[in-house]
Amino acid sequence: MVKIISRTVTILLAAVLLLAGCQGNTAPSESAPQSELATQSQEPDSQPEAGEAAGEEVTILVAAAASLEYSYRDELIPMFQKKHPNIKVEGTYDSSGKLQTQIEEGLEADVFMSAAIKQMNALKDAGLVDAGTIVELLENRIVLIAPAGSESGVTSFEEIGNAETIALGDPESVPVGQYAQEALTTLGIYDMIQPKVSLGTNVTEVLNWVAEGSADMGIVYATDAATTNQVKVIAEAPEGSLAKKVIYPVGVVTASEKKEAAQLFVDFLATPEALAVFEAYGFTPNV
Fold it and tell me: What pLDDT shows up at residue 47?
């Protein structure tokens, strides 16, 4: 009897030890799924952020007044792309009025920089440029020019009527033409000179007409006159002939799908290094 009891106790103890061993072996398998879940929950955090700021390559289009082409193309765009190699900047340059119309008609521009407040305000009021991004960045001046080798005897805006042929920007769409019209109207001579006037589609065309001698006189921005030795500056617009300064605003186009990159470019234009370039081209910072 004692032997039977002893054997039974031994069997029971073995069963208990076996059960405990099985439970101990299942613990790791139960904890494994939790570890895997924890690892999976951490994986998204280890992935790099998507988007322009994380280095995704994007291309933005800047629609800018014709008078900005040289400073943008030769200096500012290369400088910006060196700082942001993942952002390629393309430029389209024309009169601010034409660019305004193109944006209204669906031009896929990301940044707009105008040679006048008028065109920027029109796009802002139409909800086509984000109001909060607009910066009135630069100031320019309008000047009377003649071909470099000419001897006309004209020395001021008031004497422009003595020229045989005069080149002006079309005031319907070209800001420099609007400024010229305002200054000459204030001086009381705009209507008088009309038979001698040819209207250019942008400031570059006016500059070229005078440079090649097709026009005896023209009115352009000081910055454009400074780009060539084929013209000479006769005079600046008289004080008081313009009601407001010649201001160049810049802003982000509302329909842009690359606003982060576009804003980076706008911010760059207001940096000391970019403003120094503008100054070298004859502009005056307005910020």
Answer: 37
- What letter represents residue 200's amino acid? G
What is the spatial distance between Cα 13 and Cα 19, in angstroms, rounded to a whole number? 10
What's the mean pLDDT in 254-279? 98
Count Cβ atoms below 10 Å from residue 221 Cβ, excluding itself: 28
Q: Hey, where are the domains in the chain?
A: 53-139+247-285, 142-236
Helix (H) or strand (E) holding 44: helix 2-46
Give the model confidence (pLDDT) of 109-159 as tens digits.
999 999 999 999 999 999 999 999 999 999 999 999 999 999 888 999 999
Helix axes 175-186, 203-211, angle to 10 degrees: 70
Look up the CATH superfamily of 53-139+247-285. Answer: Periplasmic binding protein-like II (3.40.190.10)
Dist. CA 171–CA 269, nearest whole Å: 28
60 within 8 A of 88, measured Cβ to Cβ: yes
User: Taking the CB of residue 82, how many other CB atoms lie within 10 A of it?
Assistant: 8
Phi-psi region of 127 (alpha: psi -120 to 50; beta: other; left: phi over 0): left
